[in-house]
Amino acid sequence: MPLLSPEAPPRHVLAIDIGGTKLAVGIVSSRGEIADSARTPTHVEFGPDVVLSRIVGLSRDLLRRHPVAVDMIGVGCGGPLDTGRGLVKNPPNLPGWNDYPLVQHLQDALGLRVALDNDANAAALAEFHFGAGRGTRHMVYFTISTGIGGGLILNGDLYRGKFGNAGEIGHVQVEYDGEPCNCGGRGCLEHYASGTGIARRARKLAERYPDSLLNTLAEHSGEITAHTVKAALEANDSATVDFWAETIEMLAAGVASVVHAFDPERVVIGGGISKFGDLLFEPLRSRVKARTMPPLMEGVDIVPASCADDVGVLGAAAVALGGQTMVVS
Amino acid sequence: MPLLSPEAPPRHVLAIDIGGTKLAVGIVSSRGEIADSARTPTHVEFGPDVVLSRIVGLSRDLLRRHPVAVDMIGVGCGGPLDTGRGLVKNPPNLPGWNDYPLVQHLQDALGLRVALDNDANAAALAEFHFGAGRGTRHMVYFTISTGIGGGLILNGDLYRGKFGNAGEIGHVQVEYDGEPCNCGGRGCLEHYASGTGIARRARKLAERYPDSLLNTLAEHSGEITAHTVKAALEANDSATVDFWAETIEMLAAGVASVVHAFDPERVVIGGGISKFGDLLFEPLRSRVKARTMPPLMEGVDIVPASCADDVGVLGAAAVALGGQTMVVS
């Protein structure tokens, strides 16, 4: 479902992406063109009012430089949120934002309607409208970075569930008697296969195999991250190859579970771990296919996200343009 | 979403439930009242044409006895189906139904429009419109019997996915390195916690604990089924109590995964295993709650299905009345 018919002149919206480390603001057309944008560190340590005033300043600069008709503001922000009331509720990456009335403040300062959604839903909308999910009606988006989040496009619309929390597919539980996860669950995909989970498991592996290249790389750099795993994997370190096969199996169990539940046309995977590229996508496609009923697997693609570093701004724009979100008018 | 406003006079439909062991036909109002119904063994051994002619005979008898205006036929049938073309495609419980054009044959014989859906989707619609899911907009239905199937009501409608196969939530994979399942996957919930899975695992348990009450009951009756497990559990057999706790953990991982994905208001559980009653529902509620993020768990009920033995006929009726299904006009 295109946001506007191809013939119609494009609308423009102001897109605001609020992350724990950086802010991005852009003017984006309904065709997904970024007319202009600005980025700056968030400096969460100064609290929400200071961050808000910097967002407002950046926004006014952009609006002054680009006097196109901007009719709305879209915001993507780390959750949890109360989208019904336009509040930011204690996100782990935005300390001090306790029921912060972001929508009301932005509307008062900038005089435009504001639509708000969480960053994973915003990214799913970005991929659906402007990226790797274009042309589908049923798309599941995974973001695999520090954690694992998701967003669901069902029947051409973002699906939110009862309280707007649908799509927590990082907490699909791939080991019923597994390790405890921060969420309260056990054996969650995020606990094992997020960037954090991969690094934690890799640290144990390096201890167990002190002669492995993984451990050598770790001793050299003083730490193990997902990057260390990627480097050891590219050098064909045998302990790391086995470790990665197990990680792929965990991810494949999670993706196959989601495919059985949703029968999507496409699974789009973004986030830092998607930069493993073919090391991730080739074995994952093969293992998901092996683990999924044939009629469900037919014609489902597992593809990398394509909005890249613009996903935050494009996602915030898509929240305004296409999300069925809270709108203060 | 009620099928009709309470004031409107009810519509009536002919409901046909085709199972591997029995057929049921009924005249059902849009308020879920069964005006009349008939049941008979399916006798699959005679093949689809004979089964069809018996369905048509039963239907004509009912329509003659109850001359209300019946405007449509709804059919629930074991899948796989091709609902787009009205075909039954080789269901395991209906041998010989190879691309059988059920919709066309029924329409030709009875002269009414026909809507067809699989039995799990039909049961989900029955619970949503007439049973334990009434009043919700987001409901997940599990049926735990020989296998584990499901149906998804999202935003007040049955969700079908790309090819109509959404809701295969028996194949959520709760053990990434688990045993192979018939579906091709590994560690599927159905493999462990369906009636068949429970009986298979219980047979191993009885071998391991020859002094257990479970084994004594098994030797007495000559077999182990889910009923044997229930009897041993009610007598507090310690091996069976531990076995059941593990089964609950598997089910809780599956239900928690589905709750994280869909953020439903209610999870409705039907099928033979739901007759374990409080032995199932009390520990399952507690373990799903423990395994689920608080905002997702708030206000989600896990309840038994309530359509009981009428679920087949009510489901077939709901397919005609409320399903977004294939309609040959």
TrEMBL record, chains A, B:
One of its GO terms (molecular function) is kinase activity. Pfam families: ROK (PF00480). The keyword Transferase applies. InterPro entries: ATPase_NBD, ROK, ROK_cs. Coiled coil: none annotated. It comes from the Bacteria. Keywords: Kinase, Transferase. Belongs to the ROK (NagC/XylR) family. This is Glucokinase.
